[in-house]
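Provenance

Sequences were taken from public entries as deposited. Structures were produced by running a predictor on each sequence independently, with no templates supplied. The record for 3-dehydroquinate dehydratase from Cellulosimicrobium funkei is shown for reference.
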Amino acid sequence: MERVLVLNGPNLGRLGVREPEIYGSASMADLQESARAWGSALDLTVDVRQTDDESELVGWLHEAVDARAHVVLNPAAFTHYSYAVRDAAAQVTTSGLLLVEVHLSNPAAREAFRSHSVVGAVATGTIAGFGFDSYRLALEALAARLRG
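Predicted structure for 3-dehydroquinate dehydratase:
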């Protein structure tokens, strides 16, 4: 089974209580459980993580390269300005691994500053606006690409 790191950036640990009208009422624990189940059904081993720390997220992206793990990445606020996350994400894709950028909401339909992603240009693809289903769709896309 292929390994996939599902990595989440700042404030996503507050899922379920932070702006549920935008991010929904399900928690990070719910996401972890759902993503593992979706992955299992797709013959993927899924490891879901969340951090508010930019350097930890960069370290996990480096780990993905070293461990040959594909990535589903919700960079959250780091999407818009973190060149460190962008450069680490680029290492994933240039090493022949897949990286799908995901967002629960549709950043392009929100505040203007959210419309630009520094990560999108180095990602294999981006899925946004489908709530938790963004993660399911990302895992399905990875599995389909890996099957060839």
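The CA atoms of residues 80 and 113 lie 7 Å apart.
The two ends are 15 Å apart (CA to CA).
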